[in-house]
Design brief:
Strands 1-2-3 form a three-stranded mixed beta sheet. It is an alpha/beta fold. It starts with 5 loop residues before the first helix and ends with a strand.
């Protein structure tokens, strides 16, 4: 080999060795370890109260019980002359209206308790006070119609079966509502009706 090329060849060899050493010692950067997951506190969700409901079967049973009670009252000599309202929910019968004496109330409750399908009786009947004239009866009918219209026209009340009885301007409300607020609303609406002297609440909260 020509001596003039030897220095050049030695330089090339050293360069090759340097590249090999540097390349062999160089490592790819390691991936950073993932940050630990930070637990997120989740606030507990309060359960939403579900209004008490009835099934289709229960509604049908209640309608049957109500019909049986009304039929029995109309067939009873002591009760047929009174305007007694009947509302039933899950077998619990609510009675309202005006009667002559406590014995009439007792007789009616005893009669209703014997009817098939009745699980209990809530008495909302009231004793009549004083005599009622023909004019009173007409006025009471008008007042009852107005109160029912007011309840049906209110969005919060129109879906509920509220029975209304009026005697000499005293309005008696009975039935079942979802909560106390609806009962208060019904009383408020009835009191605002022209011709209403007072309102007696016999409504109960659904269970």
């Amino acid at each position: 080999m020509n001596k003039q090329y030897q220095p050049f060849l030695r330089a090339m060899a050293l360069a090759s060795v340097s590249v090999f050493v540097v390349g062999g010692c160089t490592k790819a950067p390691e991936a950073a370890a993932p940050a630990p997951a930070v637990p997120v506190a989740v606030a507990p969700v309060a359960p939403v109260p579900v209004p008490a409901t009835t099934t289709v079967g229960t509604d049908i049973d209640d309608a049957v019980v109500t019909t049986r009670v009304k039929t029995a009252l109309l067939a009873d000599p002591m009760s047929k002359s009174f305007d007694i309202q009947v509302v039933t929910r899950k077998g619990q019968v609510q009675l309202s209206g005006f009667v002559n004496a406590q014995t009439d109330i007792d007789n009616t409750i005893t009669l209703v308790n014997k009817i098939e399908g009745v699980k209990g009786v809530d008495n909302g009947m009231t004793l009549k006070g004083g005599k009622v004239t023909v004019g009173n009866v007409v006025d009471d009918t008008v007042v009852t119609t107005k109160v029912k219209s007011a309840l049906l026209g209110d969005k919060a009340m129109k879906s509920f079966d509220v029975a209304v009885v009026t005697r000499k301007g005293e309005v008696q409300l009975s039935g079942f509502a979802n909560d106390q607020n609806q009962i208060d609303r019904a009383v408020q609406l009835a009191k605002a009706v022209d011709g209403v002297a007072s309102v007696k609440n016999e409504m109960g909260v659904k269970e």
